[in-house]
Specification:
Length: about 525
């Protein structure tokens, strides 16, 4: 039965032995399905090419999760052309019909929850709770955007005028290219794709090459929900190879991207160039990196600040755009904070995601290499408190690492590392802490731990941060509750899971009739 208004999907509690054993059963069942080969899907047709690539388990790096046929430039062109044809009919489906596909897909994902979690554990190395939060967020996006579409389909408020009947409706844009990252490979992929679809657009989805399986799982769910063929097209392949073709195609109407700043900038530049035959300016929705800060004020409970920093810095190995990678700590509490932090971080055990270790592997070989090189930079820029290198195992394991005495303009204080590395910075006072917190090119998430109301109010005014939290961690945004997205180089200022989001996938049409 459908809920009447949006509610967040509750998270599963894995200290409950029933949930734990169900998750283990699902992992066993999914293991039986590993190693299959999957095809490209354009207009409902399965397509092979003469090249394939593998998705691997980062916890056990030689283990193949699945093999995928690799998209080519020709197929990228074909996918856009085909999605453009489907758009000519799909655009006339009613908003309620479109919303119903999302509600059905949410219900299917709810039923397949443990199975989806298992794929997340195996394909990208999330522990059970992190995997479950990813799946729950996907369910939330599907429901939330479904309800949002129904809201946008209602009569829109405009000023009445005598002698005219006026009406404003939201219509779709056209073909969208959807390019998600690997770090929330189900939630973000499902959120970006379903927002585009429910708004009446057709989609060419290019999943991250590290997590194509999660894209396949999503496409299967949408098919099971009855989404007409051709609305969602699945084109795995290298971003560098097919990405440019998809983005620059004259029939591409918009690009919805989540990933690194570098790729976001590249897509934005490429999409800005008007191609021969193109009759619009493309819209780019880019959600990019972060360098997120938690300020620890002198007037706060240090234990809860330590808890918040540790959870935000090391949850999913620090591979969240919202992860805390800098703690700015007032000099009067600095020493005790660093001591307590060290004790807590040293408790974190690193190991195979399938065994539900608190911390698992990082995503892939290049992430490992890049994080380890930042750790070497950190050793020159500050004092190593704990961690500082690889951890044991046949995967991309890195010890949770903390550096103290980092200068505000040091590289590990400025550049996104996207791994389990935390820089601790000493501030002279609260005003200096605010200044340091604003000193990067990003502006995604952040938090302040303080009991002082005036200081909290000052942070609300001063900090240029899209998702700003007080006396809690800076990760774990909930759909609808904490619309998500940052400022400056963190993206195009969009808010996923918020009331403005669907507008990015639509345009308003005004009709005025003399009466
Ligand atoms: P990434 O390397 O930028 O890749 C993201 C996606 O872009 C992948 O699907 C990738 O495909 C594709 N891509 C690469 N080159 C392309 C090109 N020339 N044209 C079109 N697409 C291209 O990012 P990631 O490593 O997957 O994800 C981590 C980053 O995402 C971090 O910076 C993180 O902060 C950011 N992020 C931001 C948010 C947010 O809401 N602001 C949320 C989550 C993550 P391939 O895999 O084939 O290379
Ligand atoms: Mg993988």
């Amino acid at each position: 039965m459908r809920i009447k208004t949006f509610q967040n999907e509750p998270l599963l509690d894995f200290t409950n032995s029933k949930n734990l054993s169900k998750q283990k059963e699902a992992l066993k069942a999914v293991r039986q399905k590993l190693g299959k080969t999957y095809q490209i899907i354009i207009n409902g047709k399965q397509i092979k090419t003469n090249q394939t690539f593998n998705s691997y388990n980062p916890s056990n790096k030689d283990e193949i999760i699945a093999t995928f046929y690799k998209g080519t430039k020709e197929l990228a062109d074909f996918a856009i052309e085909s999605a453009n044809k489907t758009f000519q009919t799909w655009k006339y489906t009613s908003p309620s019909e479109r919303a119903n596909y999302l509600f059905k897909a949410a219900a299917i994902a709810r039923k397949r929850r443990f199975e989806i979690n298992a794929y997340l554990v195996l394909e990208i190395g999330k522990n059970f709770a992190e995997a479950d939060a990813d799946t729950a967020e996907a369910i939330d996006f599907l429901d939330f955007y479904g309800y949002e579409m129904l809201r946008y389909a209602e009569k829109q408020p405009i000023t009445p005028v005598f002698g005219e009947k006026n009406e404003l409706v939201y219509i779709p844009l056209g073909v969208g290219v959807v390019v998600p990252p690997w770090n929330f490979p189900f939630a973000i992929l499902a959120g970006m794709s379903s927002a585009a679809i429910v708004a009446g657009n057709t989609v060419v989805l290019k999943p991250s090459s590290d997590t194509p399986m999660m894209g396949k799982v999503f496409c299967d769910i949408m098919e099971e929900a009855g989404l007409p063929k051709g609305v969602l097209n699945f084109l795995p392949g290298s971003g560098g190879e097919v990405g440019d073709t998809l983005v620059s195609h004259p029939k591409t109407r918009f690009v919805s991207f989540t990933g690194s700043m570098e790729v976001g900038i590249h897509i934005n530049e490429l999409a800005a160039k008007v191609q021969p035959g193109q009759i619009w300016l493309k819209r780019v929705i880019a959600e990019m990196g972060g360098k997120d800060t938690i300020i620890v004020d002198s007037e706060t409970n240090i234990d809860s600040a330590v808890q918040g920093v540790v959870a935000a810095a090391f949850g999913f190995q620090g591979q969240k755009c919202s992860a805390c990678s800098r703690a700015i700590v007032d000099q009067s509490v600095y020493k005790v904070f660093v001591e307590k932090l060290k004790t807590e971080v040293e408790k974190i055990e690193v190991g195979v995601a399938e065994e539900n270790y608190r911390m698992g592997p990082v995503a892939n070989a290049s992430a490992e290499k890049s994080i380890l090189s930042y750790i070497e930079i950190g050793k020159k820029e500050g004092k190593l408190i704990c961690g500082g290198g690889k951890a044991e195992g046949n995967g991309y394991y890195i010890k949770p690492t903390v550096f103290s005495d980092i200068k505000p303009l040091a590289r590990i204080s400025q550049e996104e590392i996207f791994g389990p590395v935390l820089a601790v910075i000493k501030s002279k006072n609260y005003d200096e802490a605010l200044k340091i917190a604003n000193n990067t090119k990003f502006g995604l998430t952040g938090a302040v731990y303080s009991n002082n109301r005036q200081k909290i109010e000052k942070a609300k005014k001063e900090l240029l941060i899209g998702n700003l939290y007080f006396n809690r961690k800076c990760t774990g945004a909930l759909v609808g509750v904490h619309p998500f997205g940052g400022f400056n180089m963190s993206g195009t200022d969009s808010k996923a899971g918020g009331r403005d989001y669907l507008l990015l996938f639509m345009q308003a049409k005004l009709m005025s009739e003399k009466v």
